[in-house]
Amino acid sequence: MIDGIGIDVVDIARFQESLERTPSLREKLFTESERDKPVQSLAARFAAKEALYKALSPEHGLHWHDAEVINHENGKPDFLFRGQIADLVDGASVHLSLSHDAGIASAMVVIER
């Protein structure tokens, strides 16, 4: 049964401007292994974390580093969960789709229980 759906889109150029204007944002939003990705990949990962938040609908805020976007050997994106988010998704299947094209990054998350 579907327990939550979230979707988010990010304007890549605007996101890059935010990263340049506020250098500490990269460390705040992304884990160490995510930070060296190209800006379009960072924008898609940010969209993924926002979509996850929407799908979870938590009562309180979540920590950005508790959800890390990884890629399997075949390129399929997935989440690596820690902390509070790991507790919230325990026993659930979390599906993630990412895309970036024409200056826009997007992500969709579906949570099944």
UniProtKB/TrEMBL annotation:
Cross-referenced SUPFAM superfamilies? 4'-phosphopantetheinyl transferase
**Biological process, per Gene Ontology:** fatty acid biosynthetic process
Q: Where is the 4'-phosphopantetheinyl transferase domain?
A: 4-86
Under InterPro entries, the record lists: 4-PPantetheinyl_Trfase_dom, 4-PPantetheinyl_Trfase_dom_sf, ACPS, Ppantetheine-prot_Trfase_dom
What does the record give under GO molecular function?
holo-[acyl-carrier-protein] synthase activity; magnesium ion binding
Q: Which NCBIfam families match?
A: acpS (TIGR00516), pantethn_trn (TIGR00556), PRK00070.3-2 (NF000832)
| Keywords on record | Fatty acid biosynthesis, Fatty acid metabolism, Lipid biosynthesis, Lipid metabolism, Magnesium, Metal-binding, Transferase
User: What is the protein's given name?
Assistant: Unannotated protein
The record's section on Pfam families has: ACPS (PF01648)
